[in-house]
Amino acid sequence: MPAAKKAPRFEKTSMKSMLSSWAEQFSLWSNCSIQGDNRSIIRIPLRAKHPCTSYCYAFVTIQYVRELYHTPFLTLVAQASRVHEANHTYNDIQRCTLLSVKTGGCPEDCAYCPQAARYHTGVKAEKLMRTPEVLEAARNAKANGATRFCMGAAWREVRDGRDFDEVLEMVRGVTDLGLEACATLGMLTESQAQRLKEAGLYAYNHNLDTSRNFYSEIIHTRDYDDRLNTIQHVRDAGITVCCGGIVGMGETDEDRIQFLLTLASLDPQPESVPINALVAVPGTPLGEREQIDAFSFVRTIACARILMPKAKVRLSAGRLSLSEEAQTLAFLAGANSIFLGDKLLTTPNPEPDADYRLFEKLGLEPSAMTTVEHSA
Ligand code: SF4
Questions:
Q1: Of 319, 238, 232, which is closest to residue 274 (Cα–Cα)?
Q2: Which residues, in sequence order, are bridge partners of residue 191?
Q3: Distance 123 CA to ligand 1 centre (A)
Q4: What percent of the chain has pLDDT over 90?
Q5: Is 52 labeled as catalytic in the residue annotation?
Q6: CA-wise closest residue to 247 among 285, 206, 208, 282
Q7: Residue 113 a catalytic site member
Q8: What secondary structure letter does DSSP report for 345?
Q9: What is the pLDDT of residue 359?
């Protein structure tokens, strides 16, 4: 009888390493158990070379997210860093630009927002910008290294008509420049989401802001489910979802935990997760809030990275109050995008030169255009 052919050594090694990598990833979730009513099933994207599929269902409970959030800081950052490395390229940080195309005069009452008409913040209501002006800004952003261009309008919701038609024109123009066009315009109907998709919109930003529980202390003019409905319309239209929140508004750790669980439970998970630190603007109800400490901020970033391994986690508002070292820690914990420009809508942001210097010090590379960001 002919001797059985010995399997090539590399196959054995390869299978062994694949299984151990799977086991290692699985152990990340092994302390999950289904308990109580707060359980949630989320789809955890595993390493790209998973032995059978790139996705696995895991049960993630509120208890699990709680334990994760309260993990000793260095252990948490190290764990987030491993997840980051398995799913992204270190040193690859996307640069984005956010332009306020319609500033101020908003009828909503978001307690953190200087653009709400009811607060006296010195932000003047302006008309919607015209498309050529916006495209000029988009061209500049591209020349400065941005690959994503976001347009924000201080509206409660989109209204069909001349202004929306102009926004569609902006989206077409930004897309034609070869940039990822993103918009944040307030609540959307299904048909408006569809029209934005047809115009070429790549991403729509609509933040959950915080936990469902704390949300009612921050916003009274629309509710959490309105937010979730708009996100669903965006998803149904085939536009990628950009959804995150703001920390440092006076929420508890438990609110952050609930917020992270809700975000991670969106199915599919958001492709883009902006994490903002509150910029306390005088004249708003949160104008006197103390700045969140950098460790709590980085802790939130690290949890977002672990719970949403494939997402772009974006360091957004509040970067001006973070030292270079704190921003570096956030990159290590999985943040992989920043917003360029000295303003984020109406709040201050680091000068571009400061960002270029930090990129140079860290040897960071601005990331190339993303062509496919959709989760399966
Ligand atoms: S966050 Fe948006 S919806 Fe809320 S007040 Fe500001 S502009 Fe209006």
A1: 319
A2: none
A3: 12
A4: 69
A5: no
A6: 208
A7: yes
A8: T
A9: 87
Question: Closest ligand 1 atom, CA of 106?
Answer: 8
Residue nearest to atom 2 of ligand 1 (CA): 154
- The token duo for 208 is 């959950």
Q: Which domains, ranges and CATH numbers included, belong to the chain?
A: 16-87 (no CATH), 92-366 (3.20.20.70)
CA–centroid distance, 55 to ligand 1, in Å, is 36
| pTM given for the model | 0.83
Report d(CA 322, CA 54) in Å as an integer.
35
Of residues 359, 362, 338, 333, the one with CA closest to residue 349 = 338
213, pLDDT greater than 90: yes
Residue 261 has pLDDT above 70, yes or no: yes
Instruction: Give the pLDDT confidence score for residue 368 in this predicted structure.
Output: 54
Q: What is the CA radius of gyration of the chain?
A: 21
pLDDT tens sequence across 58-101: 557 888 999 999 999 999 999 999 999 999 988 889 999 999 99
Please check whether residue 244 is in contact with residue 208, taking contact to mean a CB–CB distance below 8 angstroms.
Answer: yes
> What is the pLDDT, as a whole number, of residue 59?
58
Torsion of CA 30, 34, 39, 44, to 10 degrees: 30
Instruction: Kindly give, in sequence order, each residue whose CB lies less than 8 Å from that of residue 245, ignoring residues fewer than 6 positions away.
Output: 207, 208, 209, 210, 259, 263, 274, 275, 276
Give mean pLDDT, residues 140-166.
94
**Residue 242 annotated as catalytic:** yes
- Identity of residue 268: P
Q: Quote the CA–CA distance of 32 and 63 in Å, as a whole number.
A: 8
pLDDT digits (tens, 9 = 90+) for 286-310: 999 999 999 999 999 999 999 999 9
Closest CA to 148 of 308, 274, 6: 274
Q: Among all chains, which residue has been given the structure tokens 């000793």? A: 72
User: Ligand 1 pocket: which of 98, 100, 109, 110 to mutate (most atoms <8 Å of CB)?
Assistant: 110
Cβ of residue 304 lying under 6 Å from some atom of ligand 1: no
More confident residue, 135 or 42: 135
- Tell me what pLDDT residue 237 has: 97
Please give the helix or strand (H or E) that residue 103 lies within, else none.
none
- What's the CA-to-centroid distance between 106 and ligand 1, angstroms? 6
